[in-house]
Fold these 2 entries.
Entry 1:
Amino acid sequence: MKALPFPVRCGPWVPYIFAVPWKFPGRVRRWHGGTEKSQITSIVEESMQMIDNALYNTMKRNLKKRELNSPAQLFSFSKLPERTSRDVSRAAEIMEISIRSVKEKVFLQHKKSWYPTDVLSVDLLNTIAKVSGCLPNMLPPKCPNTCLANKYRLITGACNNKDHPRWGAANTALARWLSPVYEDGISQPRGWNPNFLYNEFPLPLVREVTRKIIHASNEAVTEDDQYTDLLMVWGQYIDHDIAFTPQSSSRATFWGGTDCQRTCESQNPCYPIQLPVNETSLMGMECLPFYRSSPACGSGVQGSLFGNLSKSNPRQQMNSLTSFLDASTVYSSTPAIEKKLRNLTSKEGLLQVNTLYEDGGREYLPFVTQVPSPCAQAPNTEENERIECFLAGDSRASEVISLAAIHTLWLREHNRLAKNLKMLNAHWSSETIYQEARKIVGALHQVITLRDYIPKILGPVAFKQYIGPYNGYDPTVNPTISNIFSTAAFRFGHATIHPVVRRLDAGFQDHPDLPKLYLHEVFFSPWRLIKEGGLDPVIRGLLANPAKLQTQEQMMNEELTEKLFVLSNNGTLDLASLNLQRGRDHGLPGYNDWREFCGLQRLENQSELYTAITNRSIVEKIMELYKHPNNIDVWLGGLAEDFLPKARTGPLFACIIGRQMKALREGDWFWWENKHVFTEAQRRELEKHSLSRLICDNTGLTEVPADVFQLGRFPSDFKSCEDTPGINLEAWKETFHQVRTCSLPHEVDDGDFVSCTESGKHVVVYSCHHGYQLQGQEQLTCTERGWDSPPPVCKDINECEDQMNPACHASAKCKNIKGSYQCVCTDPYELGEDERTCIDSGRLPRGSLVSIILGAIMITGLMMLTWMVICRWTYSDIETTQTNVEKNGKTAGKMECKKCHEMKISQPKAIAQPVDKDPASDPQILLSM
């Protein structure tokens, strides 16, 4: 087998992964043996090459269009996961395509000797999973066995539940509460085939649903008389803490490599949004681009491809974030990004901050390292004055300035807590301070969400029914975010987004220097925070202005349906259509199936629909498009329902959101109310804290509402920050008792340690920073004779030596640096957006430019030399002519240079001199020679 130029991950096979072999009725024959296994490997390699070719072409197009900032590119940037998730997505797509290729290339090639009853052996299935790189992502992670395992959660979310270590972990499949519905039973979305009928009718185009039911003009907006704009922003922020489904990183079809923005044909990963007959996109297309979500490893394959639907494994989608409410928006969900976000030179466990700009002495988020980023710039911005996209725990932090403001608040809060914890506990290591501050910040996310936010969304009745009081950790509850919650129910918040962003002055009035902005003017525009007044005007606007009220006739404003991510004239996107198309892409069952799941009545006709949606006009429009209630997309149906009392959702979404939140609370070992996580005194302090106090501590505001989500008037409904309670960190003060036989633990370079107690003994656990490997004893225990072993060391990992999982693509050279590595390209190639593949930049190499310049200089020199030779030759003719003229008594001043004239070059100045003057004695003649 030839060497693979792409990452291949291998690992031991775990029987339960492929516990059910593919079986067929009648004669059964298994495909196994060396020849077939070699063929399988070759097919996987071909699939790998196909995927990487598509990715390469995508990155090449993006490299050329870096400055265009089209809506599709901005959307793709916001949906671009970090490298770990990209690798998992790539492996899943390779495995899916490999299985399809096995059917097409192997079964068809051997149709004379093969039968429909043939079955792939477990060994060959294992080969596909292993060579594609999927197998390690399907295996249970190795959980740490130290005393810290129950003290601090892993950044990946793994091992929260020791019996089910993948529950809630990053880069695992979203949970399914109902089986998915695909047109082929395995992976094709509803609406993939326009001739496919549902209840005897085709599904309506999602764009037509947007235009006829969902769309509302910016002027036709009803404002919420109860809740502030901050309620909407917090919902968006929390959504980004618990769910992120990466879409395919390829922007071209896997078969043929057609650009998804140039085709209206559905072919993976392209699933374009078809436009109604009377509409075309700004690019002149009859569709809007849409990219399918990446599959999860091992899904969308197996039985149905081989004719056995009963053993099929339908396509699942992946969540690249931890499912838990753990502030991954601040800290990320992978060790590599966490390292980028931390200030590892600090002894206070701080996060990195922006080194170029400050907000009145307060910190901003740092910028992303890959530049130029696609974020918008202020008019007439010079290249050296660019404001790049912000770097945070979630890649969507720069989508709108209000979201960036919340991210910035939590960055400041972490650093504020860390500095105060260090003052209280001078003996704490920087790792201990970081982990304790992270633990507090995560707990505050949980407190604010379940105590202050969710009750307003569900209403008191549904909150009591679906969530109720906390009864402790339940290891049988799976906290994994469900597909229906992430893809439909929690997207109710899109209907509460106001089309206008207002920034207010210190008196909470419209700012004289900062006019109101429409939403499309703040997409990916962090420069508006840095150059237009900082955080305070934005925070005041969120506190004092109402959210948009979701109504049945004003579901979503035109800023989202017509101008999503518009920074130029390069086209637009429609958020409503994206939501509907995503639901079909994910195989979500219809509205009625979910009502039945929640114990609600199925609505079988138009009359019954009126019982859930009292607006008759909307019901008529829905029936006109969908023809049958069972065909209604779940996101639209849930959005259209009448609100429950004192709620902002109807009964269906209240059920789904409530069940999910209860699972997130009950199934999380590190939930703040679990008595093993914080002391009783610490829990009391956490309960005092609020988003109001957070704003007081991290902005210049001196007055805030008691409840930041409740709409009020300034100043009557605001109170002083001095009267706003918050955490007293004294509850975290730890008295250091010098152990008689053990000195303070030794620090290690490029690593750190945390102390804990195990079986009544004092223990320190060492860890290395990402990019380093620990050598020596990880855990040291204090004994009567001192520490039981010397401290370990952290050794730099040479990622460039990893042959099984190469750090860089074969097109790049891997250069190891301390704690990390660099992928280096030779000129004129540049690194693509995956930061590991070299892409042809399309320009000449710098060496070629030097050669061209040197060549030009040489040619110019030869021309000058030729000119001098000609002129000397010409001068020789002139001397002869002068001699002849003198004999005839004429002057040389009237003579012409015949050869110079013929060659169309200037006549030498020498011929203009008097004939009686000796040319050799004239300096001008000498110079011309």
Entry 2:
Amino acid sequence: MAEIDARLREEVNLLGTLLGDTFRAERGAAFLDKIERIRKGAKAARRGSGEGARQLAETLDALSDDELLPVARAFNQFLNLANIAEQHHRIRRRAPGEAPPFEERVLDELLERLRQAGHAPEALARQIAALDIELVITAHPTEVARRTLIQKYDDVAAALAAADHDDLAPRERQRVQQQLQRLLAEIWHTDEIRRHKPTPIDEARWGFAVIQHSLWQAVPHFLRGVDELLQQRCAQRLPLEAAPLRFASWMGGDRDGNPNVTAAVSREVLLQARRVAVELYLGDVEQLITELSMQQANAALHERVGQVPEPYRVLLRELRQRLFATRDWLDAALQQPATPPTAEVLHDNAALIAPLALCHASLVECGMAAIAEGPLLDTLRRAHTFGLFLVRLDIRQDSSRHAAALGEITRYLGLGDYLAWDEEQRVAFLERELDNPRPLLPVRYQPSPETAEVLATCRVVADSPAASLGSYVISMAGAPSDVLAVELLLKEAGLERPIRVVPLFETLDDLEHAGAAIDRLLALPGYRARLEGPQEVMIGYSDSAKDAGTLAAAWAQYRAQESLVAVCARHGVELLLFHGRGGTVGRGGGPAHAAILSQPPGSVTGRFRVTEQGEMIRFKFGLPGLAEQNLNLYLAAVLEATLLPPPAPTAEWRALMERLAQDGLTAYRTVVRGETHFVDYFRQATPEQELGRLPLGSRPARRRSGGIESLRAIPWIFAWTQMRLMLPAWLGWEHALACAVERGEGALLQEMRDHWPFFRTRIDMLEMVLVKADAGIARLYDKRLVDAELQELGQQLRELLRQAISQVLRLTAQGSLLENSPELRESISVRDTYLDPLHLLQVELLARSRRAGGETDSRLERALLVSVAGIAAGLRNTG
């Protein structure tokens, strides 16, 4: 087993020791001794010690009700601190001669490869400047960390960075340690669990905080790095207006199955985003006013402000005044929606950018480029990336809600029932009304509350500045009428400008027919005439994997993209694919760089849109250094996939992939749909029922009442992850790979893994999730929580897990999982010492809760939620 880096181990030990000192100060030495016995017992048990397992079980069994919560909190915080230390280690100062991490050198190495492949330096610079990558941050129903604690965790990381100097004096090092001690005490004495479910506006503020505390700093630093590389490798500069990476959000706009997201909520979130942006720009402009005291300016600046002694300050003070006016109006509009703006209020990005660009051009022209390239350049880059609106808000709604609204409208107008019409009738009606200049809805029409909400959302879209909005995404789309319906409803709301209306193909059946649906849509003359810019299509990873298993879903997603690329090429329309990935392998998650490079050739052509969700936002973008690394990965991957696309699969690979997908689908559905007692087992063996009671997110765990089909993909996966069976991420693979081997196709599987990025990435992700699975932990949940007559099913599922591991080891020619990546294996396995006690505590808490019929006291309920949070922290990508 590889050793963890000595510096990382030292910092983990330091944080653990200081946290232990905090326990001792509050609860005494006896409590700390008990925590140590549990930790040592778990460590010994993991190494196969029967005595260690006995010590662990006995110590946990002896805990009183009053001790359950503190013990759960202790191990939860151990895991969070280990994550912080590991995150800091990725971005820490490097010793002289020490190679930078892959994330920091990836773009430089790619540019050199591209130059060697014959790409002209000037063309490379133009391609990077023209990249259109949008990361869409989304709320996570299983994100449990409070913003208060996230900020304290960030402060711990900053303290570790302050200590990361060899030349600190003893007194300076002591001060850092004292600061860490204080921060850990603050963390320990802060309630890590919300008392109430967050609202959609709370979730949006969480997203804004990531920008405020990390991305606001990271983005201009990242772009400086890109600019420097272009100068070194291509003798070119990154244009000032270039914004290859931008951000959008679903927080406050995603109303699919979430009744808490209303038109009023979306409107408030749009205003709140502008309010945050204004405050951030005010901070920047105040700094610039202080720094830009120069007198010399070019003719354009003097023409703008007159012959004044300090022209830069005069212009920036004008901008500051407009920002003040904008802030005052936003404050008033948040209280009184109908408040009209004054003439000074900023409404478009150009009004923000123009004075900054004028200052920059003047400084450069007057020989002060060194000043222009300082904080002013950073603010200008932010203005082009974030604009006045911080993030562009996407609106998402289920297609059935639009159809129901139109059904109500057509019945009211005496036109028949839209819901009863076939697709041809719907399209004919929609196209006719979209071309009709008169309104469809009479003034006296009084819609039902459901239809009124749909129409109100459309009015928010129509009334909002274009730059504040992203796309209108239609869940469960399957036909052209789903897109036209939204266009008509937006027209009725008064929208007179284009907005991308995006069908989301989610289920296996929808993915199979995605190309045909877009083909029919683009063949409509009226639609083509209205289409401005690319045709955006969203690929759903969560529901397709829940519907068919990850193997069949991954191949369906791949083929859907191939089909969409061909269809759009045939129609002469640019395609923009929007990837709805989650944090876990079971929802299309995994390393973004590898995932992008495994997409079908031609599917990434300088444009890329993808969701970043919940806790993965924090792990990837929560610290400025981490954010810079991950922005580098995204830019490099999209550039490489555009200019050096992966090979198309051979006919043999494609045929085998079809067989694998079919075998995987059969095996997955045989268990999930065909096993009579599967739902009962799932609800007993996992904390699925309890998760629905906990204050985890604003969105309900279910779209409607019913069985597995009614459960959202995120809690479906989250529940299996908590008890470590990880079933949705691997079920079906074990059977499909075994069938291929039995057919004598082992060599072809190996060839696909060696030469086809798509297949290699799927196997790598499968291996990563299998190393996090733990049959022994899953068995403990069965033994304590599952009825005797259902335990055989649990044993069968664990046997399938064993088979999946065996097949992956055969394919990768390893003796153990991640044998070829020992550092990653150790990073995952080292957490088991802290995870095992939490699993055992969770099993006990679930048993007590169920004995009480769900009416547990608040201490046990909170301890259960802390165990959920701790396991999620330990496994990282959980939902």
